Amino acid sequence: MISQLFGTDNTAGTTKLPRIPTRIEDLDPADFASTSNNPYIVQEKNISDILCEYQKAIAAKNNKEGLIVELNTHELLALNNVLLIKHGQHSKMMLDFFSEDTLKNIKLDLIDRFKIEDIDFNKNIRDKLDDILKVS
After folding, report:
1. Cystine design at 29: which of 5, 12, 56, 84 (Cβ 3.0–4.6 Å)?
2. How far apart are alpha carbons 59 and 74 in whole angstroms?
3. pLDDT mean for each 10 residues of the chain (136 residues)
């Protein structure tokens, strides 16, 4: 019965469940309106407005088909006004609204604005953190 319901494959001794989309209740695209009196502008692009359009599309996707945590990480973060910017690791949906160049320019602007330095992480500290995370 469970295997029919979830399409599990128990032949190797492990149960595989499909990725089931989750819908966030009461998420209305109209909730994401650009009302910023001080928009974030990078290279003459209004990032605040683009983010609002992205959020509206995410809300519509949520209402239509749901979101999957493992696949829609960028979208779930964007709903909370967080843009996850890592070179070459953007979702397709994110790239529908922000070009690679725009994302690169946002990153460069933030590095300059907050005087972020690119320093190597101490290997010993990183190894200790890795050990702690593995135990957790």
Report:
1. 56
2. 13
3. 48 62 91 89 96 97 94 96 92 97 96 83 80 75
